[in-house]
Amino acid sequence: MQDFRTETFLDVCDTLSYTRTAQRLNITQPAVSQHISHLESAYGAKLFDYRNRRLSLTKAGEVLRDALAVMVHDERLVKERIASLSGARRTLGFGVTMTAGEYVIARPLARFLLQRPDLQVRIVASGTEDLLAMLHEGSLDCALVEGFFDKGEYDGSVFCTEELVAVCAPGSDLAEAPRSLEDLLGEHLVVREDGSGTRAVLEHALAARNLSLDGFARTTEVTSINIIKTLVANGYGIAFLYESAVRADCEAGVLQKIELAEPPISHDMTFIWLKGSLFESEFRGLVGDLASCAYASECGDAPSS
Question: Pfam families, alphabetically (predicted)?
């Protein structure tokens, strides 16, 4: 079970302030210091540094934070599994990035949930960075992300590989012949916000050619994929979006794909969870079940409840 000193330590990791933690936990600041001192004695290492009036985690503190985050998360799941033995529904905190949520996993997830009435699911759609933070907080159990993550902190399983494609308005000269990335720098680029997986993959592909978003003639940041598609369809710039997000629009003639001279920009969409979780096999089973549901959806089989 979670020790009260563990709770104090993890809260200080979040606030980086003994004063704020004392206020949040309704204890005194000396009590916070005492809890941290006890843990430092128990582990034989300093957990926080205080320099220039700022508190920061030491390397030892980071190791302990990551380990305890997994333990706290798994303890919650254990309690829920025990409760489910008496008929209570099990809960699942499931995160998805915007593109993955709307265009990749929604249909398979619906099919999966129809088959699992024993689950109480909370689905959160957000950027990759936000989802990673929620995994560490314990508010999510697993997440499907399209962005980059530290493989030293998370275990995971690739769900699918998606291609990032360039699109423009129908009838644009840009779609008449293959273009290099350099050819497109003179265009107005409509791009997702900083922190989104789609943007990170684009920036990575540009950096591989010593290019950057700053090289485009103009950029407009938009947080909504659908708004980006509407702007581009009406001639307001070009965009790089995952093929799954624009497939129907291109088939309907609402958008037009710009053929690139370079090899395709592809990236894995990956299910991840905290490294070292006791429930790894369960999460891998979830990925397998969702993959089966995705295959069934593509084949057009009717979902069963």
Answer: HTH_1, LysR_substrate
**52-108 residue pLDDT tens:** 888 999 999 988 888 888 887 777 777 767 766 666 677 888 999 988 998 999 989
- The DSSP annotation for 241-278 comes to EEHHHHHHHHHTTSSEEE-BSSPPEEEEEEEEEETT-T
Judge residue 4's burial from the number of C-beta atoms within 10 Å of its C-beta, 0-12 exposed, 13-18 middle, 19 or more buried.
Answer: exposed
DSSP code for 302:
P
The 10s digit of each residue's pLDDT in 253-266 is: 999 999 999 899 99
pTM summary value? 0.68
User: The domain at 79-160+268-299 falls in which architecture?
Assistant: 3-Layer(aba) Sandwich (3.40)
- How is domain 161-267 classified at the CATH fold level? D-Maltodextrin-Binding Protein; domain 2 (3.40.190)
Cα four-point dihedral sign 103, 108, 112, 113: positive
**CA distance linking residue 208 with residue 203, whole number of Å:** 9
CATH architecture of 4-73: Orthogonal Bundle (1.10)
* Rg (the chain; Cα; Å): 23
Query: 7 exposed, middle or buried (CB, 10 Å; 0-12, 13-18, 19+)?
Result: middle
